Amino acid sequence: MTSSGEDPRLWVLYVAVVGVAAFAAAPTTRAAARTFRWPPPAAAVVLWATVTAASVARLIAPDLLDVLDRRPVRTRDSGEWWRVLTAGVVEDGGVLLTVANLVLLAIVAVAAVRSWGWYRAVGLFVLGQILWGLFTTFVVPSVGAGTTGATLALAGSLAGLWPIVGASRPQVIASVATFLLGAVLVALGDAHGVAVLIGMLLGAVLGTVLPPLRPAHTGTGEDRPAHPHPELQAPPPGTPRRDMGS
Fold this sequence. Notes:
By secondary structure, the chain is an all-alpha fold. 64% of the residues lie in helices and 2% in strands.
């Protein structure tokens, strides 16, 4: 299994995962206008700007990659554990690969922050990178760096979320499609498929124990937790009461 992501054909699947995640976060024109409205959320901007700064710094100073990239032997034998995380904020490719990864991250970051809330989204990005970094350090050891794994894990978390909090049929279909795309990547020997599946698992778990806040749409600007079983929610104040037998 490889984690290089150098095959252009695999990038078709990466883009598909991100596209499906964006659709799931905004399955209608109205939802898309709300999710991807300008300006983007501050947390998404900060996350993207942090990764961009590190990636640009690496292009300017190539030796920086030797300090930050994934080196399984050094991590295991020399205790350089920071590489598990820092390998996810720099790119080991050229300008084109860096730009492509930053575009994917920009889309996913906005969708994730608007769906999860800022601290859940940032936490999922970091935790997704740590778990995928550990996988590519110890299970399928490989030298490298790049944001693709963390980005796909964050995209996968959206696919894991929607079925938990009561999704629409298009969102359930998108979740199934994301799982299949991850499975295809694994079958093709690409470790990024594992990142997608890790993200789905994280999304399902977090969506169960700490569901995200959603706009209450009451005009007050407040948020309320997304209920995993909306049919069990108490009706809003002022709703006519119905007898059980009616």
